[in-house]
Amino acid sequence: MHSLKRVIRDSLLVVLGNAVVAFGVAVFAVPSDLIVGGATGLSLIIEQFVSVNYATIVFGINMVMLIIGFLVLGKKFAAGTILSSFIFPFFLGLFEAIPQFQHITNDILLSAIYAGIFTGVGLGIVFRLGYSTGGMDVPPIILNKKKGVSVALAINVLDIMILVGQVFFSSFEGILYGIITVFVSTFVLDQGEKNLQVLVISAEHEKIAEAIFNEIDRGCTFVNVTTGYFHHQQKAVLCVANNREYAKINDLVMEIDPAAFIIGSEIHSVKGRGFTLPNIDLEKRDHV
């Protein structure tokens, strides 16, 4: 029952996050002819050469990236992304089809700012669950997983490349305001990209550490602790994770030991495997 509730909760949040991103793009960015990043920006470039609506092209890009995500990141990632791959183009088409949403403001600066805010907030909702909105979010997540590159930084670099590709089809003002949108979006998203030190005190520390290894692909350290009331000698599990992974860790721990004591504290600097260095391939290690 707990697992079912979590699936329903996560699904609703994924839908909400995609709706927020699509609202920012279809209501503020596209009507104001702003250059945008991500799959939408790439689709606007492709739209110049084919007579296909950009929302349909986004759907095609999402399908390709979904397959790549499945091959590189595994079926769990694909399962968490497949909903976004379908629902995001749906919301784009829906908001585009509502005339009132196409004329909310004629102020291009307001459009640029609010397109960035909605995009950053929507992406943050989805990323915090450990999922993706699909499309061009997949390469940054692969880089984060394999090379420890910040998701926000990778999205920023990729978006700039896509923005450059739209220069030939956009006005000079659209380019300048589009850059504002990208930086606002990245700033908002980066506020949610925090690293946390997680300490779990539980008698089931071995099971918890194994679950974190297998399900989150994060390393752990055992710390010797003495409980204050009963003075029991036991081990605590210490790991560092970003806030997208923290929700998953919390769910895993609660499934194994509902009475576990969990502490999550924000940290400002972390170096090592999985952050500034690539993760160790645990599957290869197990076969050595």
Please give a structural write-up.
Helix 3 (54-73) packs antiparallel against helix 4 (75-96) and helix 3 (54-73) packs parallel to helix 6 (138-147). Strand 2 and strand 3 form a beta hairpin. This protein has helices at residues 2-29, 38-47, 54-73, 75-96, 108-128, 138-147, 151-165, 172-192, 205-216, 243-256, 282-287; strands at 195-201, 221-226, 233-242, 261-267. A four-stranded antiparallel β-sheet has the order 2-3-1-4. The chain has 288 residues and is an alpha+beta fold. It is elongated and about 70 Å long. The model has no long low-confidence stretch (mean pLDDT 83). It is built from eleven helices and four strands, in the order ααααααααβαββαβα.
Question: What key attributes describe this structure?
Answer:
alpha+beta, 11 helices, 288 residues, elongated, 62% helix, four-stranded antiparallel beta sheet
Percent of residues in helices comes to 55-70%
Number of DSSP E strands? 4
Quaternary status of these chains?
A: single chain
Unreliably modeled segments: none
Strand content: 5-15%
**Which secondary-structure class do the elements indicate?**
alpha+beta
**What is the helix/strand order?**
HHHHHHHHEHEEHEH
What is the radius of gyration computed over CA atoms, rounded to a whole number of angstroms?
A: 21 Å
* Number of helical stretches of at least 4 residues: 11
